[in-house]
Each structure stands twice: as structure tokens, then as C-alpha cells.
Amino acid sequence: xxxxxxxxxVPCYNEQEMLPETxxxxxxxxxxxxxxxxxxxxxxxxxDGSRDDTWKLICAAADGDERFSGIxxxxxxxxxxxxxxxxxxxxxxxxxxxxIDADLQDDVNAMRAFLEEYRKGADVVYGVRSxxxxxxxxxxxxxxxxxxxxxxxxxxxxxxxxxYRLLSARALEALLSYPEVNLYLRGLVPxxxxxxxxxxxxxxxxxxxxxxxxxxxxxxxxxxxxxxxxVKPLSLIWKTGLLSAFVSALIGLVYLILPAEGPGFAAxxxxxxxxxxxxALGLVGEYAGKIYAEVKRRPRYTVRETKNx
Length: 309
Ligand code: UDP
Ligand code: MG
What we know:
Blueprint: E1 6-12, H1 19-32, E2 42-47, H2 54-63, E3 68-73, H3 79-90, E4 96-99, H4 110-119, E5 124-131, H5 137-152, E6 161-168, H6 169-176, H7 185-188, E7 196-202, H8 215-229, H9 232-257, H10 264-296, E8 303-307
Parallel strand pairs: 1-2, 1-4, 2-3, 5-7
Antiparallel strand pairs: 3-8, 4-6, 5-6
């Protein structure tokens, strides 16, 4: 039955090298899967404030073909916010939504399996990377380390799943009702519940352009994930503080009972405890900063113009 109204949301930041191929591939996907998909299925590009010709290319694709559409954010708000913008735009206009990166590193053909899982009743389908040897060793190591760290911190995330996933209309609506502005979608989606499924695929190399996720953005995302979904760092601090106070007191006691030569305990302990206090203060400050950002309720993004919507 060809009745699934699908919207594919593609966040794009400076993707001019990649876009023509992306448009071709996603268009072909819609055409090749017309046995499942309704003719009303769409590809929605979100231009995340690109400085190159990304928007022009989106408009060119949309001009002759109503299957393609775009929204353009007024400035670069980052991948998670761009995705959110696309999801809000698609809400109410589709039966299910798939988010995929513009560089098509995530195998487009896996979307067929996503749709089959959706047909079988899944509301959330996670795309999971079965191998990532096409990523650089560094990327792989940091990414996999991060998934492990997150589970250690107690935040439920799907191992080796990034933002390649399908959401049914009701899962999408549930997700969009989360008001937080410190977005970390990989942590939010598992909170939705519903029926879930996983589809495994092989991650490819980027064929054009370069990664828009330099180390700095990756670390920022990891930190966002850790501090938005876990208060363990806070409890870790006070436990460390308690432990160090206890140990210091013990050593201090030893110095008192058996007076000894040397720099004395005080010299060392002041630096040690001082460092701990600073680190603790800094971390508490991070959380306070997040509360500050949340209570301001600033919009996540601003739309500059749209095409074919
Ligand atoms: N992206 C975005 N805004 C940004 C950075 C990236 O919309 O500020 C998009 C980018 O165009 C791509 C996706 O997010 O579609 C993932 O980025 P990339 O492929 O560069 O990340 P990597 O695969 O290297 O982690
Ligand atoms: Mg990529």
C-alpha cells in the first residue's frame, strides 16, 4: 500500500558540495519506494544559516519539483536546533518523519527498512551504525567513548545511534512538546517510550565537503548530553569533596600524633583542596548556566524564509 506520507528532514550547514548529490539520492529514494510512500511524501531541507550557496541550491531543487522544500534559518543555530526547526515545520504534514544528515554518510537505503518497521507498528526507529571503520580512528574513539560515558552517567542513549531515525507522527508530537532549549535529541527520544525498533547499517565516508562537526562542536555536544541528562557530575563532586576531606583529616591526624620532617601536610593540602573547590564551583556554575538559559525561554531558532512550504 502506498499510503505513508513521509517527510525526510535534512539539516544543512555549508553543504554546497554535497547538496546536488543529496537531492538526487533522496529524490530517487522517494521514486523507488513509491510502493510504500504516498505521492505527498516530501524532502525538507533546513538551511542552518549557511554562508555558501546552500540556500540557492535548495531553491533550485524546489523550483521544478514540489517534492523538495526548504526553510532557511536566520543564522547558524547548530545541528540539533536545525533538526528541531525541520521537525516543527513537518508536524501535522506527515505520517512519519526521517531525519538524515546532508552528507548521506548514513546509508539512504536503510530508510526502506525504517519504513517497514514503521509499517509493523514501530513509532521510533533508530538507525544504528554496525561498523564505523570509514570514520577516522579519532572520531570513532571519541564517539564510542562518549556513548560509554553517557551510559556510565546514567543517561539512556542508544549505542552508536546518532540522529538518523524515524519518528511516527505521534512520537514527533510527543518529542516537540519537550520545552527545553538545551537540546540533546539522542537523550530525549528514548524518553518518549512507544514501540521502538533498530535498523543496522554501515556508515560511509563523506563524499564531498568536510565535516561540520569539528572537535570543538563534538565536545560541546558531548558536554550538552552529559549535563542535560545527568546530575551525576554534581553528586560526583560532593563525593570527591567528602573523600578528600576525610583523607586530609586522616593525614593531618598522623602529622599531629607523630610529628615528622618535610614540607608538612598543609602545603600540599591547600593546593589540593583549592583545586577541588574551584572545579566544583565551575561545574555547579555550568548547571546554573543551563538553568539560566532554560528560564529565559528564548526561541531555538528564527526562520528567515521558506520555499515550497
Ligand atoms: N549541520 C548543521 N549545523 C551545524 C553543523 C552541522 O545543520 O552547525 C549539519 C550538517 O550540514 C550535516 C549534519 O549536520 O547535514 C551533520 O554534520 P556532519 O556530517 O558535518 O557531522 P559528522 O558526520 O562529521 O559528525
Ligand atoms: Mg557527516
